[in-house]
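for the record, two folds in this file. i put them one after another cuz i was lazy. first one right below, seq on top, structure tokens after. the second one comes after a little note so u can tell where it starts
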Amino acid sequence: MRAAFFRTLADLAAHDERIVLLTGDLGFMAIEPFAERFPDRFINVGVAEQNMIGIATGLAEAGFLPFAYSIAPFAVLRPYEFLRNGPLAHRWPVRVAGVGGGFDYAANGISHYGLEDVAVLRALPGFTVLAPADARQTSAVVEATWNLPGPVYYRLGKDDRLEAPGLNGAFAPEEIQIFRDGADMLILALGGMAVEAQAAAGILQKRGVECTVGVVAWVHPAPLEDLLRLLARFPAVVTAEAHYIVGGLGSLAAEAIADNGLACRLIRCGVQSVPDGRIGSQTYLYSRHGLTPEQLAETAWRALHPEEISHAEKTGRP
């Protein structure tokens, strides 16, 4: 998604001289479409993410439109206070692009995992949070939101070849994109988890369960009207996210259900424990946290058929 992000940003910069790109000494082999076209509007601040956000804040105050890019935890967690006291408090249009949300940097360990970025930014009223599902939707998201008022966070994946089948790059502000429609169950996916959610729905279809699958690319402020309309249609809803289950998409759905008295059951699929140091591929880490298509499908099936859970599973006894 990052290549699509930079290509789109460079095209926008050709028509708006306010756009400036900052990086914390990474993104090479991806940032070149912008850096080579606009060298006077590209700043490598080095491994100094707090300074990067400080500089971006000053640029925004001076009338520029800065985009600050780093790996998700470095872009959000390390400079969190700077984000709160600068762009948020003053409503300045700083754009933060965090690459590698979830387990994209699988082999690098917990320091590089973006598992709480959505949660901490959802806690800030007025901070727009966007999580596109694939490269095509990334371009659509940036084109639709680059000039929003106030601060914006783009949660990007590393994989530029990722494609959510059937989504076709669709995006509309403050809406949930539906790219599979069924009457039995709703699966809501955060950003790139749309691919796994769509595959899980295909597995469930073979078992006679027809799912509606929605990708939540506009995360905050909550797309509440769309979300409530969807939640009200189904007896059971599964959320899927490469993120801790507290504070992310699952929490967003739970809040909507509780605040509006909806009568649907919610099952949150996400990361429920701190990674224990074992590393591997992204697929391996998904399997450890119940996020493969097969695991999501099994979780959804059990939500619809609780009577099939054995006595041993319910009680822990044979």
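(here's the note) second protein begins now
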Amino acid sequence: MALEKPRRRRPDAGRPFIEDETGRRPFMRGIMVHSLLSRGASFEDAYKAASEVREKIRGRETVGRLELAAMVEGFFSGGRGLEEKRLPLTPSIRVVGDGTETPFSKGLLSQSLLAAAVERNEAYEVAREIEAELVQARIHEIGREQLRARVAATLERSLGERVASRYRVWRAFQRRDRPMVLLLGGAAGVGKTTLAQEVAHRLGIARVTSTDSIRQVMRIMLSPELVPALHASSYDAHEVMGDAERADEPVVEGFRTQAATVGVGVRAIIERAIAENTDLILEGVSILPGQIDLSAYVDSAHVIFLVVATLDEEAFTRRFAARGKSAKQRPTHRYVKNLDAILRIQDDILEAADQFDIPIVDNSSFEASVRSVLRHVTETLREQGGMREPGPP
């Protein structure tokens, strides 16, 4: 006799349903907590209010949205405040297009605006404004392109045509047939890794790689006897190379020899991203202007090259101290001891950037540097895509 499998309990079994003119959906305390947090409630109050409402409607089959909103307003009327008291609980708004349907989200929308070099607070305010417009207009379903047009119009009205244009460029790029490869070169300690990670977050790029990782793989494959420069740091590679010590500038010679070797792996990583049509951010000291022929990728990818620099010597020391705390295998004193060599390598990189017309980002302010990179990305995509250049900011 076969045993009967236990029936799986439906996620909405036993839940009251919320009804309005758009239909009905199960009540979920977590969604209400999130909605109240977005309206300025503390987590404690949001959780208490959602729990209280759940107890009041427990056992009921349906509850109207207006009745639900009244319960919430009653909870917050006794001294607890909401930033948006007049805004009812946000009804479900669906974003449709390309055969898909997703719920509207202020968080996701504000995240997408960061790619246009919009500040976080401004991005969230724009997202809240658009949500309020949709609620007040009783729009429960909107096409994806219609939403993007509304976003661009709101950005132009609130922040100017330049910002709206950057948003349009990045959105247009999402339908591209070529990947974007962003290269961030620069000496040790200039903040390339942190900058790359934040830019990747704002652009929604999942693949971020460093030349340190490439070099580590190559070290396993190539012995110190075969390629000695590969088994040293960029600033002391000359110490393991007899020929470099006889050069006019041994530090630069050792660095360039190492960069040329790692450059083989850099080209392989770029070509793999192109083959997979995957966006990539690649950062590292071994990405030297003039050492990689970027023209070879002009028809297959949007390759954008920037050099990151720190022109303040004290900023180097502060970054090395922070790096030493987060990465114990990279002690601060080694970098400080070799600061002169690192600065000489930076000078060489900057000279190469000037020679090959590679833009330089002075990473004196992290947030300003992130926005600078984002602006350069969208402007380059505009030029490479043949899009109309907007007027001055």
